[in-house]
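Recall the central idea of this unit: under ordinary conditions, the amino acid sequence of a chain determines the structure it adopts. In this exercise we apply that idea directly, starting from the sequence alone.
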Amino acid sequence: MSLAKEVDTPQNITQDVIFPPAGDLYSDEPPLETELHLAEYAQERAERLAAKLRELNIDPDTI
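Accordingly, the structure predicted from this sequence is:
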């Protein structure tokens, strides 16, 4: 015995579903990461890597 009630589901649900258009969607929201942010992040990582290499007595300019 089931406590849940059987529900008739419509056979053609796609009529009620709105699909977004293919491709990029327009948004007024700014991007989370700009090219400047990514460049700054890459520079910080490179500087940290160079510092670690110097700790190991490896010249980062020779790599």
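The helical segments are 35-55.
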